[in-house]
C-alpha cells in the first residue's frame, strides 16, 4: 500500500528508515503529528505511520460526510484489526454484531421504564463508594470511583439485581473493558504469527467471558423459559449471554466530568438551580432529565475536550474516492482528526466560526447556542459533522441515549448530594496521550464532602 498511497502527503518523513522512527514517534507524539497534518491539509488527507500500517487521516465536513455515506468503508473490520477483538473477545462479535441491535432498540426503548432502577443504583452506588462524613472532606480516586459507579449502574440495566451487586461479577465487569483494550494494545505489537500465543498470556478475556457466562447463564435460561411460557415459542437466540461486553466510553466520560466539576466551581450553583427547578417540580424521570439543558451542555463541553486525536476508524474494502477527488486503495485504514476538529475556531471551507475560544472550557456554551438558535441540534446526543464524540452515520454510537441519561442523572445526583473540589494547590489533571488516544488521568484524586444545605 505504501506505493499506492504515494499521492497522500506524509507527516514526518516517509523513507523506509524514517517510517519506523516516525511510527515510534507516533506512539508518544501522535497527537501533535495529527494536529500538524490538520493545520497543513485541512479538508484533504494526510497519512501518519503507525507500527502496523499507514493511517490516512481526513478532516473537514465534506470528507466526514463522505465517510457517513461510504458503504465500502467498514467500521467493524477496522476496529477488529486495531483492538484485535478476534484474539480477545473472539471473532463472533465481528461476524455477527447482534449486540448493536439490542442496544439500539430494546435497551434504548426501555430507558424510561427502567429509569427509577438506574437512579436507585446511582444513589446506592455513590453512597457505597463515597463514604462522606458530616462536614469533612474525603479524598477519593476519581477513576476508580467512576469505574465502579458506571459498572454498577450499567449492570443494573443489563442484568438487574442481585447480580449487579455481586462482588465477583462487578469485578469482572470492571476488569473486562480494561483487558480488551489493554490486551489489544499489547497484541498489536506482535507479528501475526505470534498473536494467538500472546493472547493467552496477556489477556484474561476468554477466562473472564467464561466466568461471566457462569453468572449470567441461569439468568438467561430463566428469561428464555419465561418468554417460551408466555409466547409459546423459543426466543430466537439467547441474546447477549455475555453482558460484560460493555463499552469503555461511558467510563471514560464520567472521569473527566468529575475533574471538570471540581475544576470549574462557577458552574455548580447554576446547575443546582436547574436541577432544583426541573427535577424538584417534575420529579426524577427520564423526561424531566431531558430538560436539564445546562447539565447536558456541561457534559457535552467536557466530552468535547476529552476526545482523542483520532476516531471513526474505517477500512476501505474497495477502492474509494472522496467527493474532493482523493482516492484510497482497498485495504487502507482511515480515521478522522477529531481533537483538532473540536479545537478549530474556523472551518476554513465554510468560513463560519465553529467555536468561540475553543481552548477554553465553557460549560454552558452549548446551552447558550441552543437557546439562541432555538434548536435541539446542540444536545449532547445530536450527531453533527463538527461534534464528533459519538461518531457519524450508520455506526454512530447506539449507546449514546443511555450514556447521556446515565451521566446527567449521575451529575444531578452528585450536585444535589455532595460538594466537590480539587485538592488544594492542584489544577485540573491533564489528559494522557498515547498513540493519539486521549484518556483521563488515572491517578488523580478529588475531594468530596456531604453537601451542606
Ligand atoms: C459517553 C459515552 C460514549 C461515547 C463517547 C461513545 C462513543 C462512540 C463512538 C465514537 C463510536 C464509533 C462511532 C463511529 O466510528 O462512527 C461508538 C460506537 C459504539 N458504541 Fe458508543 N459511546 C459511548 C457510550 C456507549 C454505551 C454506554 C454503549 C452501550 C450500551 C455503547 C455502545 C456502542 C456500540 C455497540 C458501538 C458500535 C456501533 C456500530 O458498530 O455500529 N456506547 N461509540
UniProtKB/TrEMBL annotation:
Necessary cofactors: heme
Listed Pfam families: p450
Binding site for heme: 397
CDD domains: CYP503A1-like
Membrane spanning stretches: none
GO molecular function: heme binding; iron ion binding; monooxygenase activity; oxidoreductase activity, acting on paired donors, with incorporation or reduction of molecular oxygen
Domain of life according to the entry: Eukaryota
Keywords, sorted A to Z: Heme, Iron, Metal-binding, Monooxygenase, Oxidoreductase, Signal
PANTHER family: CYTOCHROME P450
Family: Belongs to the cytochrome P450 family.
UniProt protein name: Cytochrome P450
Amino acid at each position: 500500500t505504501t506505493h499506492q498511497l504515494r499521492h497522500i502527503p506524509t507527516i514526518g518523513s516517509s523513507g523506509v528508515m524514517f517510517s519506523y522512527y516516525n511510527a515510534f514517534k507516533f506512539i508518544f507524539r501522535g497527537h501533535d503529528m495529527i494536529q500538524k497534518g490538520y493545520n497543513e491539509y485541512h479538508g484533504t488527507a494526510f497519512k501518519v505511520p503507525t507500527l502496523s500500517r499507514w493511517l490516512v487521516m481526513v478532516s473537514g465536513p465534506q470528507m466526514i460526510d463522505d465517510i457517513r455515506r461510504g458503504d465500502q468503508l467498514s467500521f467493524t473490520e477496522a476496529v477488529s484489526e486495531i483492538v484485535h477483538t478476534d484474539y480477545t473477545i473472539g471473532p463472533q462479535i465481528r461476524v455477527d454484531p447482534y449486540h448493536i441491535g439490542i442496544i439500539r432498540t430494546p435497551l434504548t426503548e426501555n430507558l424510561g421504564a427502567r429509569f427509577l432502577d438506574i437512579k436507585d443504583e446511582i444513589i446506592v452506588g455513590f453512597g457505597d463508594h463515597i463514604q462522606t462524613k458530616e462536614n469533612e472532606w474525603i479524598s477519593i480516586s476519581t477513576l476508580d470511583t467512576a469505574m465502579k459507579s458506571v459498572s454498577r449502574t450499567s449492570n443494573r440495566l443489563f442484568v438487574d439485581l442481585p447480580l449487579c451487586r455481586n462482588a465477583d461479577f462487578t469485578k469482572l465487569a470492571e476488569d473486562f473493558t480494561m483487558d480488551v483494550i489493554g490486551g489489544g494494545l499489547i497484541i498489536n505489537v506482535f507479528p501475526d504469527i505470534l498473536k494467538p500465543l500472546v493472547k493467552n498470556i496477556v489477556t484474561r478475556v476468554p477466562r473472564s467471558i467464561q466466568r461471566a457466562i457462569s453468572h449470567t447463564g441461569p439468568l438467561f435460561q430463566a428469561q428464555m423459559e419465561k418468554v417460551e411460557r408466555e409466547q409459546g415459542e423459543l426466543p430466537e437466540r439467547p441474546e447477549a449471554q455475555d453482558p460484560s461486553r460493555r463499552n469503555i466510553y461511558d467510563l471514560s466520560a464520567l472521569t473527566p466530568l468529575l475533574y471538570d466539576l471540581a475544576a470549574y466551581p462557577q458552574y455548580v450553583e447554576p446547575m443546582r438551580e436547574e436541577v432544583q427547578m426541573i427535577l424538584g417540580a417534575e420529579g426524577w424521570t427520564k423526561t424531566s432529565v431531558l430538560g436539564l439543558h445546562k447539565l447536558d451542555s456541561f457534559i457535552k463541553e467536557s466530552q468535547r475536550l476529552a476526545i482523542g486525536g483520532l476516531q471513526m476508524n474505517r477500512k476501505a474494502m474497495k477502492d474509494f474516492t472522496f467527493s474532493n477527488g482523493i482516492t484510497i486503495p482497498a485495504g487502507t485504514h482511515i480515521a478522522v482528526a477529531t481533537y483538532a476538529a473540536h479545537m478549530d475556531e474556523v472551518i476554513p471551507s465554510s468560513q463560519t466560526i465553529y467555536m468561540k475560544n475553543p481552548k477554553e472550557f465553557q460549560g454552558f456554551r452549548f446551552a447558550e447556542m441552543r437557546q439562541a438558535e432555538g434548536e435541539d441540534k446542540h444536545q449532547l446526543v445530536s450527531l453533527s459533522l463538527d461534534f464528533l464524540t459519538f461518531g457519524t452515520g450508520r455506526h454512530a454510537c447506539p449507546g449514546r441515549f443511555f450514556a447521556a441519561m446515565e451521566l446527567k442523572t449521575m451529575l444531578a445526583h452528585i450536585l444535589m448530594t455532595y460538594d466537590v473540589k480539587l485538592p488544594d494547590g492542584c489544577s485540573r489533571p491533564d489528559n494522557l496521550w498515547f498513540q493519539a488516544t486521549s484518556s483521563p488521568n488515572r491517578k488523580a484524586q478529588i475531594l468530596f464532602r456531604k453537601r451542606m444545605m
